[in-house]
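Milestone M4 deliverable, item 7.
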Amino acid sequence: MGTTNQNNFASYYFNSEGIEAYYDTDTYYGPAYKIASILNGGADYSNTTGALTQSYTGTGSGMKLSIQTDATGKVTSAVIVARGDGYKAGDIVTILGGNGSARVRILNVQQSNGEIVIESFENGTFTGTFKLNAANEDGEMITFSEGNFYKVPVY
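Output delivered:
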């Protein structure tokens, strides 16, 4: 939820005692939350806990990565250690250093990260857990951190 695949989204509507609010997991700009994939491992990089990055697509800045490399200096794993700001899901970021061609894709940002875990599937129903952050049009967030669903039918 909150990734570039907007077929997977959540929304929350609240209306009580004259207070009305709408939150959703649309694509928002913010600090990077999770890396989706390494698009290009590049070459000549070194293991580090503070690799600098530069936006290749998008407008975000300031993200730093902890990277692991193989014997040729190809980036084999990347974990965010400083989130930066101004990113959106799907942005591509270049890892500076090495031969300058290593790139990663951002899965989601702090304002719109979410996850669904299917724990069981039986007799045409799903059971599991979910968590998500959703934002309103002003960027204010609401967090659902321990959601459960039980035997939801599949149609």
